[in-house]
Specification:
Layout lengths: L2 H15 L7 H5 L35 E7 L2 E8 L7 H5 L4 E7 L14 H6 L15 E5 L2 E3 L9 E3 L11 H16 L2 E11 L1 H12 L6 E5 L22 E6 L7 H13 L4 E6 L18 H9 L4 H12 L5
Parallel strand pairs: 3-4, 3-7, 7-8, 8-9, 9-10
Antiparallel strand pairs: 1-2, 2-4, 5-6
Helix pairs in contact: 1-8
């Protein structure tokens, strides 16, 4: 499926299923199985999100291979794409190691969204110099799949999600799945352990912040597109944990129906107050980086807000994110 058709289908799907912040409380609660008031909160946030059948579906992979394993009776999947250079025997015999880029998809999307909506980013994985070795070109891409669920409180309802609401770093099944795939590829492939990065879009952006901080001994830097502070998410906000402040780069829309500009502004304020090593970049209507002092769009309509949420950043904006990551290896 080409990128435009995927984009159009995603916009229509979200217009039909994503609830509006302007709806009544009763309408909002109908998007989930349990109202926020009934969710039993704890130090771990909300309980694990309730899944629906089929919990996973085997994704399509482009120019790569599918990874899978059984997790408590559920088959977990990931797409894995090596850079072209890593397929060359001469490069492998030279002892080169390539960075690894973990992609966490958005809600109601799957890993193969990287080949359509995120095509500009995927196309960089063969050529972008993310390594500090001038002879190394490109990077490995690992794109795990979330689970189909009806989260406790999500504007997008039932569909593929990452469980950002259950904030136990050891027993969260989605974190365990990413751990498994990360262990598998680092054991089998020539991956630079100092250059493992995690990036997510939307729900995946929230999850990328969680995963990066929870696995700060492995993750060099975090990238977010259309995401914000996962620890503040309702219905069960919890404090941000202490420990290493993993460098973070945020690409945000100034009009976004699902991750409002005001929400990303709050996240920027929080990161600033904590002296977190981070950058943020504002995106205009077309997905290009605009000035840092640009204001949130007033009267951000629902159609435009979903259009911008689904429209990925321009190639140049993604290269800016990758440059930040390159400047922040682990340790």
């Amino acid at each position: 499926m080409n990128g435009f058709i995927t984009y159009l289908a995603t916009v229509i799907d979200l217009l039909q299923h994503a609830r509006s912040d302007k709806k009544s409380g009763t309408d909002q609660e109908s998007a989930t199985t349990t109202s926020a008031a009934d969710v039993p909160c704890s130090a771990d946030g909300a309980p694990p999100m309730p899944t629906v059948e089929p919990v996973t579906i085997k994704p399509y992979v482009e120019r790569g291979r599918i990874l899978s394993f059984d997790q408590q009776g559920v088959t977990r999947y990931a797409c894995f794409n090596p850079p072209q250079q890593a397929e060359e025997a001469q490069s492998r015999s030279a002892g080169y190691r390539w960075p690894l880029f973990i992609y966490l998809h958005g809600s109601r999307a799957t890993p193969d969204s990287l080949y359509t909506l995120g095509k500009s980013l995927f196309n960089l994985h063969d050529s972008y110099a993310l390594s500090d070795n001038p002879n190394v070109r490109g990077f490995f891409v690992l794109a795990p799949e979330g689970r189909r669920a009806t989260p406790w409180e999500s504007p997008t309802g039932t569909g593929f999600h990452w469980d950002e609401w259950y904030r136990n770093p050891e027993s969260n099944l989605d974190v365990q799945a990413v751990d498994h795939f990360l262990d598998e590829v680092t054991a089998a492939e020539p991956i630079d352990p100092k250059r493992i990065y995690v990036f997510g879009w939307s729900n995946g952006a929230y999850m990328s912040a969680l995963y990066g901080v929870w696995r700060s001994h492995r993750i060099a830097a975090i990238g977010q597109y259309a995401g914000a502070d996962p620890w503040s998410r309702t219905p069960c906000p919890v404090p941000i944990p202490s420990g290493r402040q993993v460098p973070l780069v945020l690409l945000r829309n100034l009009c976004d129906a699902l991750v409002p500009c005001s929400t990303t502004s709050d996240w920027i304020k929080t990161l600033t107050e904590k002296n977190w090593p981070f950058q943020y970049h504002n995106l205009n209507l077309t997905g290009a980086i605009t000035t840092a002092d640009s204001n949130c769009v007033q009267n951000c309509g629902r159609v435009r807000g979903i259009f911008e949420h689904v429209r990925w950043p321009k190639k140049e904006a993604l290269e800016t994110m990758l440059h930040f990551m390159k400047e922040h290896p682990l340790g």
